[in-house]
Amino acid sequence: MSTSEAAIDRIQQRAPRPALVDTFGRAVTYLRVSVTDRCDFRCVYCMAEHMTFLPKPELLTLEELDRLCSAFVARGVSKLRLTGGEPLVRRDVMTLFRSLSRHLDSGALEELTLTTNGSQLARFAGDLAACGVKRINVSLDTLDADRFRALTRWGDLNKVLAGIDAAQRAGLHVKLNAVALAGENEDEIPSLIEWAHGRGMDLSLIEVMPLGETGAERLDQYLPLSTVRARLAERWTLEDIPFRTGGPARYVSIKETGGRLGLITPLTHNFCEGCNRVRVTCTGTLYMCLGQDDAADLRAPLRASESDERLHAALDDAIFRKPKGHDFVIDRPGQAPAVRRHMSMTGG
Ligand code: SAM
Ligand code: SF4
């Protein structure tokens, strides 16, 4: 970096930077970052059995991830979620959590959190809590060990349950996410809800999204949550509630279980108008919309200079292009995915 570049950088580091606001007036305050494309599971709706993962040099280093996240925080991002792949299988990922926690201490960041499959939680729950993480999302589609193994191909249910126990013991607020899968876990949805609510956890159901080739037919897996909701309403008293977490989930309370159920319906309900989020892959590609292919490369500006000026210019450029919404469809057999990349690339 030249002396003048460094000086400008120092001045601008002190000056507050403009917030990231798109052309539809939506402020980007929520960033999801995939810290790895690797995973210790191979969930049937997410990955193919034999995945080819990225060569290591393509991945942002932990230092680069810190710089990138910090640049977003400087532009008004107040909620940061690390995801993957499985974020807790990235080597030394706690170093990143620890360094990012400085933004919690400064008050710039309101929340630092993660989405995890839970397999490594027993090991990391205490460290996460020590880094200021308060709430985590754990993905769990079934409580049946054999079914769990079949759905995740490689997973061990007991490890995940031990991880959830450890997280709750460490004082982390756990929310469960379950993908609703036709013919796979649909019969189990009520018992999953009862189990979660019985342990003081909210649960959100997610419709399967057409992201990346997995070798499975999405139309066979697709279970509209409108159907699930109608079935649950025959058993329980559901009431729409205004509770929001800033995301796409719409919530209902269930009188009989005393808990909240989130319904994430990208296919039957368009949630784009309130979208406040963007996603970055582990290679530093910024996707302004989960369901569109347009993207911006942030790795080149990150690596081009020690100054963050190029990075901020790339952010301005990209946010200007944030589209109004996505157009997922999943109604034709054999249809190609809406976008080619897997969920594990962009992060859930
Ligand atoms: N490995 C972590 C986990 O499973 O929680 C984080 C990454 S995973 C890609 C994030 C979330 O995306 C998980 O809840 C997973 O169930 C969900 N997911 C993956 N593929 C999906 C798809 N095609 N449709 C809907 N949800 C999907
Ligand atoms: Fe791994 Fe999460 Fe994808 Fe399952 S959903 S394969 S745990 S990244």
Automatic annotation (TrEMBL):
Belongs to the radical SAM superfamily. MoaA family. Keywords: 4Fe-4S, GTP-binding, Iron, Iron-sulfur, Lyase, Metal-binding, Molybdenum cofactor biosynthesis, Nucleotide-binding, S-adenosyl-L-methionine. It comes from the Bacteria. It comes from Ancylobacter dichloromethanicus. It catalyses: GTP + AH2 + S-adenosyl-L-methionine = (8S)-3',8-cyclo-7,8-dihydroguanosine 5'-triphosphate + 5'-deoxyadenosine + L-methionine + A + H(+). This is GTP 3',8-cyclase. Monomer and homodimer. [4Fe-4S] cluster 2 binds at residues 272, 275, 289. Residues 23-248 form the Radical SAM core domain.
